[in-house]
Structure formats: C-alpha cells, structure tokens
Amino acid sequence: MNKDEVKGKAKDIAGRVERQAGEWTGDKEALAEGAAKQVEGKIQNAWGKAKDAVKKPSTSQADHDRAEDQTEQDQAQRRRNRAANE
CB of 4 within 8 A of CB of 41? Predict the structure, then answer.
C-alpha cells in the first residue's frame, strides 16, 4: 500500500462522512462536496493500486508457463548442441 492509496482511502471516507452529514441535515452543498471528495478519493486509491501493480512482478500462471517453455527450449537446444559435438 502506497501513499496514494492511503490518501485516497482517507478522502473517500471523509467524503462519505460529509455526504452523509449533508443528507441528514438537508445541506445539498455539503452533500455534493462530500460526493465529489468521495469520487476523488476512489480515483486516487485506484491510481495507487495501479502504480503498485506495475511495480510488482507478475506471478500469473501464463508467465509461469512461458518461463517453463523457455527452459524446455533451452534444454532442447543444449541437447542438440551436445549431439552435434559428439
């Protein structure tokens, strides 16, 4: 979790509180500002998650399978090279 995720979550929560207070009091301005803060927080949180996803190495099954295929191809090439040298 990076600082964008933390700040985004904080804005999201503050926006929810402000929006809810606006609903309870009938203050349409507070309601709108709270909703805007909430959206801003969600966007910032998503941005932080995206940045983390780019930094972390992929551990998907497809990546694992690709690495295994490459290893098998390397081994087959070594065998061919050895056979050619004998």
Answer: no
Count the residues in the chain: 86
Instruction: Tell me if residue 59 falls in helix, strand or coil.
Output: coil
Residue for token pair 């990076």: 2
- The pair of three-digit structure tokens given for residue 46, joined into one six-digit string: 């998503």
How is the chain classified by DSSP, letter by letter? --HHHHHHHHHHHHHHHHHHHHHHHT-HHHHHHHHHHHHHHHHHHHHHHHHHHHHSPP--HHHHHHHHHHHHHHHHHHHHHHHHH-
> Quick one: tokens of 76?
């087959």
Are 41 and 9 a contacting pair, CB within 8 Å?
yes
Q: Mean pLDDT in runs of 10 for the chain (86 residues)? A: 90 95 95 95 92 76 73 83 78
Question: For residues 34 and 21, is the Cβ–Cβ distance under 8 A?
Answer: yes
